[in-house]
Write a structure and sequence with these properties.
Largest sheet: 9 strands, antiparallel
Distance between the termini: 47 Å
Strand order of the largest sheet: 2-3-9-11-10-6-7-4-8
Order of helices and strands: HHEEEEHEEEEEHEE
Helix content: 25-40%
Oligomer: single chain
Number of helices: 4
Radius of gyration: 18 Å
């Protein structure tokens, strides 16, 4: 088992370095997690402040959650680096803010919006972004149906899987026009990864 784990780690490290196909990375990550065992919580939830939510009810392969209203820093044009720049001090106070999890992507007909949750310290009065295309958003409270998976998944594919589950008896309860994906880990963490996809409940 130790040899298998070592080979899996080596293969995955090489794959990350050379930019291997996502399907290969996903399979290797999940294989490695099953070989060496994850242990503890999935995702980097113990090292970073988490966007709060509560589980309302569990179903077969997904769950209903409630997210309270909270502030996030977001962009539609700049991507991860723009948001990381904001928490690194590109704001009107030159204030550094701790990284949080998850990174949230919202996919809709308007395109993709990427957001970082703001720590509790800055929920009431966050510094204002100074970079173009970066803004503070007060997200409304929401009920969602969510599904969790490991590895390096194609979020669009996973969203379709969740949609298929929800269409079996719950289609009238769901807003299918938009889905959200949540990423809890850096690309370099290979074991015990966590990713979520979600649709809002009507």
């Amino acid at each position: 088992m130790k040899i298998a784990a070592t080979l899996a780690i080596l293969t995955l490290s090489i794959s990350l370095t050379v930019g291997a196909p996502q399907g290969l990375l996903n399979g290797l990550s999940n294989l490695l997690t099953s070989v060496v065992g994850g242990g503890g919580n999935t995702g980097e939830v113990d090292s970073y402040q988490n966007a709060p939510y509560s589980v309302v009810q569990k179903f077969d392969g997904f769950e209903e959650r409630y997210y309270p209203s909270s502030k996030w820093v977001c962009t539609r044009t700049g991507g991860f680096n723009s948001l990381f720049g904001y928490i690194s001090g590109t704001n009107n106070r030159n204030q550094k803010i701790d990284m949080t999890v998850p990174v949230m992507n919202t996919e809709s007909e308007k395109g993709t919006e990427m957001c970082f949750y703001l720590t509790q310290e800055f929920q009431s009065n966050p510094p204002q972004p100074t970079a173009n295309g970066v803004y503070i958003a007060q997200k409304k409270s929401m009920a969602v149906f969510a599904m969790t998976m490991g590895g390096y998944p194609n979020m669009g594919v996973e969203a379709r899987k969740l949609r298929e589950k929800l269409e079996k008896g719950r289609a009238s309860q769901v807003d299918f026009s938009t889905y959200m994906s949540m990423s809890y880990d850096s690309p370099w963490k290979v074991v015990n990864r966590r990713n979520d996809v979600m649709y809002k409940k009507l």
